[in-house]
Fold this protein.
Amino acid sequence: HAPTQVTYNNRANAKAGMGRWQEALDDYRQASAMQPDYVFPKASAALVTYQLVSIRCSIISSSGQYVLVV
């Protein structure tokens, strides 16, 4: 059987639980594309996106100045 939007959403949940944020986001997006009115992957994708931004942004102190690196 072909994966359904629920399958992609559940797999994304498992990947997010393992900290595999980008892979989870890819699966959430696939689930949303398959059924645009399915709200669970959209809400979860927003949380994963926040997590990815938090990881990718760091504050570095250099010569007494703070620089935001994205």
Notes: The helical segments are 5-17, 21-34, 39-56.
